[in-house]
Specification:
210 residues; alpha/beta; Rossmann fold; six-stranded mixed sheet; four-stranded antiparallel sheet; 25% helix; SAM-dependent_MTases_sf; Class I SAM-dependent methyltransferase; methyltransferase activity; methyltransferase
């Protein structure tokens, strides 16, 4: 059965199999996606997230998210409205920003499922290690785009794939909830299709300006 890209709807090509999971690559947007029939059901997905040890007081975790935290502190004011999209059970970035008197709300379909937050507009939306979890990336990106103010920004963190990476040995695919991987070409596709003004890629830190 043909696999259609869940980001751009284009038919995908088989890419690789690893750890009893099959992956497809889209020739249009260049994303790599898990076979849609192998996606976890919501109950099993939440069980996997419940095993994450995201202690908001952990200094190592705070350091890991610091590219986003430092960017917000250096580019936005305390009066700007932010949204932590996919905040998870331990929203460390929100805590660090709120400790500095920043105004930021938390949304997560499992842990902070307040859909009303998605009907508001924000100066910045952050998603730290979240976009690789999108089972339905098109609808997720649509929701984020709709909630981003004009001149606002999306600030993401994820690991990008490129052809120098040995996919079989790549650690990032091993998490069962990591179901879509992006390349620089994929990000350019997202920039163009959603009509963003600019895209900045700084290692794991990705910034779209609206």
């Amino acid at each position: 059965m043909t696999q259609k890209c869940r980001l751009c709807q284009h038919p995908m090509d088989f890419f690789d199999s690893a750890r009893n999971r099959d992956y497809y690559r889209c020739p249009q947007c260049d994303s790599i996606q898990l076979d849609h029939e192998q996606l976890l059901n919501p109950m099993d997905e939440k069980k996997r997230y419940d095993t994450h040890n995201n202690d908001i007081m952990d200094k190592g975790y705070q350091s890991f998210v610091s590219p986003i935290t430092n960017y917000i502190l250096n580019h936005f004011d305390k009066d700007d409205q932010g949204l932590d999209f996919g905040a998870g059970p331990g929203p460390v970035i929100s805590k660090l920003l709120m400790d500095q008197s920043y105004s930021i709300s938390q949304y997560d379909p499992f842990f902070h499922p307040d859909n009303e937050l998605l009907n508001k507009s924000y100066d910045y939306i952050i998603a730290c290690e979240v976009i690789e979890h999108f089972n339905h990336p098109k609808s997720s990106f649509n929701a984020i785009k709709k909630s981003t103010k004009t001149n606002g920004q999306w600030i993401f963190m994820t690991y990008l794939y490129d052809d120098s990476i040995d996919f079989q040995k790549w650690h990032y695919k091993n998490d069962e909830t990591h179901v879509i991987f992006y390349s620089k070409k994929t990000l350019e596709y997202i920039k163009n299709i959603y009509q963003f003004k600019s895209l900045i890629i700084n290692n794991r830190l990705i910034i779209f300006s609206n």
